[in-house]
Each structure stands twice: as C-alpha cells, then as structure tokens.
Design goal:
- With about 250 residues, this protein is mostly helical.
- It has one domain.
- About 60% of the residues lie in helices and about 0% in strands.
Length: about 250
C-alpha cells in the first residue's frame, strides 16, 4: 500500500477516495447497474406494511449477500484477477497508473468492509463457510417463492417489483453471470433452484431494459478466454515504464 501511495504522489494524482472505491465495489457486485427496471411499484403506492417488509428485506439481503460476494469476487485469490478485468471497463481505470495500481486500493477497501461486517467474530469465516450459508438462504428464498407466489412471482406477491425484488435480482445476477471460479458451486446451486430461475425470467420479461439471463450467461458467449498472465505482465510492464519515466522527468 505504501508503494502505491508513493507512486500516486510521485505522478501527482489524487489517491482513490473511499466513497469512490465503495461505488466501484457496488458496481462490480451489480448493486449499482445500468439496467434499470421499469415495472416497479412506487413506495407511496404500497401498503405501509408491505413497504416496511420491502425495506427490511432489502437491508437483510445487503447484509447477507454483499460481504459474501465481496469475499468471492475480490478477496478470493482465484477471482481477484478476473474481477480486475471487469473493473478495467470502468472509467476510473482508463489511465495507466489507475489501471496498474487502483485495484490494489479497492482490494484493501473490500477486505476492510468484510472485516467490519464480521467484527463480532474472532476471524473472518472462510469462503466455503459463507458460501454454504448463502446456499441455505437461496434455498429458503426459493421455497418462499414456490409456496407464497403462485399468482405473482415476486417476494411480497405484488405484480410490480419492490426495492427488495430489485436488490435480490441484482445479487442473483451477479452470482451466475461472469467468468469466475466457482469451486463452491454457488452459481450451479442457483440454477438448480427452479423457482429462483422462474423469478429471474419473469423479472426480465416484465422489465423492458433487463436482459434475460435465466436462459444463459451472455458473457459466456464470447470466445475470448481470459489470459491472466498476459494481463499481469502487460500491466506490470506499463507500470514499470511509467515509474521510470516520471523518475527520469523529475530528475531532469
């Protein structure tokens, strides 16, 4: 971290702010996404009790899914470089220095968020442990949809979707979309839960600008396979060149 701070100071760039890194993490997790649903119910039109239930479910999903997916995508050695490929598509990663070093700040920020979430525990649970907990939660949600949503396949049995539905869909999408290592078979677990897949299918049908991923991962259609070593070597070469150039420029 000290090295990264030194390079940022050396080239005269502002270090990434915590709020900017938080936003990038949320974009990586699909909490923030360009796909905005339009078949949603306005909070003022909801029954107050349903509105309260939606708020409670939204907070619960954030506490359950967010730290687990951060561990899976960012804090996992198998997926860190794969996550960087998605981060590199974001505007803040276009400059050479940012492309080479910014993800390191984000990784440290993500690890801190996970530790803060598990502050009451002696240590952060393993990825396998949190994945098992998430599977149990997904199974419970699937059973709820099967038993209580015979007419409207939504969490609170509404035709239009509540904020809780939007939050759940985005997390489900993040689990099954992308070229990530999934040794815990979390994505497969979701695909085997038919009510969840029907839920995602209906969500895409009802919302104009949502791509239906319940029938397949559009990111899996490309023939391009990630060449991680090439990415690492390329980034390292560029970064080293930038360092040498600025050291030379400051000495001249």
């Amino acid at each position: 971290m000290l090295f990264r701070k030194f390079i940022y100071d050396l080239v005269g760039r502002e270090r990434p702010r915590a709020e900017d890194l938080d936003e990038e993490i949320e974009r990586l997790l699909y909490i923030r996404t360009a796909e905005q649903p339009d078949h949603v119910v306005k909070s003022e039109e909801l029954d107050p009790l349903i509105n309260l239930d939606s708020d409670i479910l939204t907070i619960w999903f954030m506490k359950k899914f967010k730290p687990a997916l951060i561990q899976r995508l960012i804090c996992s050695k198998e997926n860190y470089y794969l996550a960087k490929r998605e981060l590199f598509q974001m505007p803040n990663y276009q400059a050479l220095v940012e492309r080479f070093l910014r993800a390191g700040f984000l990784e440290k920020r993500a690890a801190k968020m996970v530790q803060e979430f598990h502050f009451a525990s002696i240590e952060v649970p393993s990825l396998e442990h949190v994945s098992d907990d998430l599977k149990k939660l997904l199974t419970m949600i699937s059973e709820h949809l099967k038993e209580n949503s015979s007419q409207n396949l939504s969490l609170l049995n509404t035709d239009a979707y509540t904020p809780a539905d939007v939050t759940l869909y985005n997390f489900l999408k993040r689990i099954i979309v992308g070229k990530y290592k999934d040794e815990q078979k979390l994505g497969l677990h979701v695909r085997l839960l038919e009510p969840l897949m029907e839920y995602m299918h209906r969500y895409a049908q009802k919302n104009t600008h949502i791509i239906d991923i319940s029938r397949g991962d559009p990111m899996a259609d490309t023939n391009e396979e990630p060449n991680l070593m090439a990415d690492i070597v390329k980034s390292a070469t560029i970064g080293f060149g930038v360092i040498l150039f600025f050291i030379w420029a400051h000495r001249s």
